[in-house]
Specification:
CATH topology of one domain: Four Helix Bundle (Hemerythrin (Met), subunit A)
Pfam family, one: COX3
Protein name: Cytochrome bo(3) ubiquinol oxidase subunit 3
Radius of gyration: 23 Å
Family: Belongs to the cytochrome c oxidase subunit 3 family.
InterPro entries: Cyt_c/ubiquinol_Oxase_su3, Cyt_c_oxidase-like_su3, Cyt_c_oxidase_su3-like_sf, Cyt_c_oxidase_su3_a-hlx, Cyt_c_ubiqinol_oxidase_su3, Ubiquinol_oxase_su3_dom
Keywords: Cell membrane, Electron transport, Membrane, Oxidoreductase, Plasmid, Transmembrane, Transmembrane helix, Transport
Shape: elongated
Largest sheet: none
Strand content: under 5%
CATH class of one domain: Mainly Alpha
């Protein structure tokens, strides 16, 4: 056996001193997740389109929806997207304190959105317009509730990232996570515009 063969046998061929994370793999994976979420909401929108006129002799959207409150709720979510954009600008400047400030403001707007949505749900159920009252209300609660659950998850994710940024700063891993949450948050904003237009406005006007 030659000396070269012995050296190869003694030296490890594959040894990594740090974790291997291919550049762009996280963003690609998260885009795939968002596309799957698009399919979920597309199905829920289609279901509401089919069942949205089946009132079962019960109340219609014009009887139930308070558009000023819904418009206020919409403004909370739109403002949260703007403030998240401010947070991302501060992240690019590597300004940790300012980034955390705008993330906190974003979380407060998101919490206000969830609070108003819960108020609407409780009010509807108190009026006897719960999800089991008609096919229209079943599809409404499912669509709006699914979006609300996504926002709630986003707030939990936001708080988790604020803790990580506070502890470790704006390191590359935290920047990548903040970018993913940014895509998720703006995606929810776009979905809600569809909900506001298709479910609330068309429901009341139609």
């Amino acid at each position: 056996m030659s000396d070269q063969t012995i050296d190869r046998a003694e030296k490890p061929e594959f040894y990594l001193t740090e974790d291997h994370h291919p550049e762009g793999s996280t963003n690609l994976g998260f885009w795939l997740y968002l596309m799957s979420d698009c399919l979920i909401f597309a199905v829920l929108f289609a279901t509401h389109g089919v069942l949205g006129r089946n009132y079962a002799a019960g109340p219609s959207p014009a009887d139930l929806f308070d558009l000023p409150i819904v418009a206020l709720n919409t403004s909370m979510l739109l403002l949260s997207s703007i403030t998240y954009g401010f947070a991302m600008l501060q992240m690019e400047r590597n300004a940790k304190a300012e980034t955390l400030f705008w993330l906190a403001v974003t979380g407060l707007f998101g919490a206000a959105f969830i609070g108003l949505e819960l108020y609407e749900f409780i009010h509807l159920i108190h009026e006897g317009a719960g999800p089991t009252r008609s096919a229209f209300l079943s599809s409404f609660f499912t669509l709006v509730g699914t979006h609300g659950l996504h926002v709630t998850f986003g707030i939990i994710w936001l708080i988790t990232l604020m803790v990580q940024v506070s502890m470790h700063g704006l390191v590359e891993a935290n920047r990548r996570r903040l970018m993913c949450l940014s895509m998720f948050w703006h995606f929810l904003d776009v979905v809600w515009i569809g909900v506001f237009s298709f479910v609330y406005l068309l429901g009341v006007v139609g």
